[in-house]
Design a protein that fits this description.
The chain has about 90 residues and is mainly α. It has two domains: about 1-40; about 40-88, no CATH class. About 65% of the residues lie in helices and about 0% in strands. The longest helix has 29 residues, at about 5-35. The protein is flat, with a radius of gyration of 28 Å.
Length: about 90
């Protein structure tokens, strides 16, 4: 008994799809293995202390709490509005 043409085409498509998926998986795996992190300095306790002394923590706190509200995309919180109304 001979396999129909439609069944053969379906099997071939599945085989090609799985082969492509395996190829992409291998490429991602090789990219993860050979990604060069050796150029970066290792994080040590001394480096963290140095960043804190340089004001690294102050830079994080200086970031806006609601960046969308500052852009005018989303409404700001009620605390800022009440402070602005009290200042007027």
């Amino acid at each position: 008994m001979r396999v129909g043409r439609k069944e053969y085409d379906g099997t071939q498509r599945v085989r090609i799809g799985l082969t492509g998926l395996a190829f992409v998986f291998i490429l991602v795996l090789l990219g993860a293995i050979f990604a060069s992190a050796s150029e970066e300095e290792p994080i040590t306790a001394n480096m963290i202390d140095k960043q804190i002394a340089d004001g690294g923590a102050a830079k994080v706190e200086a970031e806006p709490k609601e960046p969308l509200a500052e852009l005018g995309v989303a409404p700001g919180n009620a605390e800022n509005k009440s402070e602005a109304a009290a200042a007027e």
